[in-house]
Amino acid sequence: MLFKYNLNGWTGQPCCNSLQYITNVLINTFQNHKQYCAKVLGTCYVLFSSNLLFTALGLAMLGLGLWGLLSKESFSQEKLGSLGTDPMLLFVFLGLVLTLLCVTGCVGAVRENYCLLRIFSVVLLALVAAQVLAAIVAYGLQGRIADFLRTGMLTAMVRYQDDLDMRFITDEIQTGLQCCGADNYRDWQINSYFNCSAPGVQSCSVPASCCVDPLENGTVWNSQCGFGALQLDEFSAQSVIFLGGCLGSISRWIQQHSGLISTVVVVLLGECIAVKAI
């Protein structure tokens, strides 16, 4: 028991005020610690959930790149020498980097490892800065970027039969965006095999990836579904192939998904702020 002391000596009265003060300090400390733990746990939960989502995205990109390499048999002995120039390696690299980064964030959030979280935060800030810089540059150079895309698309169309990578990318774009050619389907006249003056069986044709229904309600891809399409007028051709060019489709895709792109940037910034808050 605690006692007070005054000028007359020990009074023998319990020091109730001191006990109450100590009790209040302990209660306040416990409540503050409880609130801090709840804040940290909530932040870690948000970090873990968002990183888990981006990990799945990274694995999807990695899988797409590996699927592209395997589908073209890029690991075969005769093609192994040119593997370094395969554009599918870009998907593999980006998917691997994104997966490793997000796994670092997940582990750091679960284990509350501040070193991993700081590394994650620095890399994330660099990625956000690169995205913002790329958006500014793209906005300022819209005309040049459009010309660059058109030149690249036309080059891929010219080399369609001679370069498997160009063929793969062109087919994926035309199939995914349901388009044909750069500006319209008649751009395929630029290809020496599909040109109407060509002597082969592919004369006046377009690739099967331009076809509205390349399977023709079956299960086997009909590689000849676009044969003779350039001889048709637009009314007749629209039931067989896509008439619109891919440049317009790419522009519309970016406009339609601008909200998603902005959301990704906001989420990345939010993760950076969350890491700083821990």
Automatic annotation (TrEMBL):
GO terms for cellular component: plasma membrane. Disulfide bonds join C180-C196. Gene3D superfamilies: Tetraspanin (1.10.1450.10). The keyword ATP-binding does not apply. It is found in: Cell membrane; Membrane. The chain crosses the membrane at residues 45-67, 88-110, 116-141. GO terms for molecular function: enzyme binding. Keywords: Cell membrane, Disulfide bond, Glycoprotein, Membrane, Transmembrane, Transmembrane helix. InterPro entries: Tetraspanin/Peripherin, Tetraspanin_animals, Tetraspanin_EC2_sf. It is a multi-pass membrane protein. It holds the Pfam family Tetraspanin. Part of TspanC8 subgroup, composed of 6 members that interact with the transmembrane metalloprotease ADAM10. This interaction is required for ADAM10 exit from the endoplasmic reticulum and for enzymatic maturation and trafficking to the cell surface as well as substrate specificity. Different TspanC8/ADAM10 complexes have distinct substrates. Interacts with ADAM10. Belongs to the tetraspanin (TM4SF) family. This is Tetraspanin.
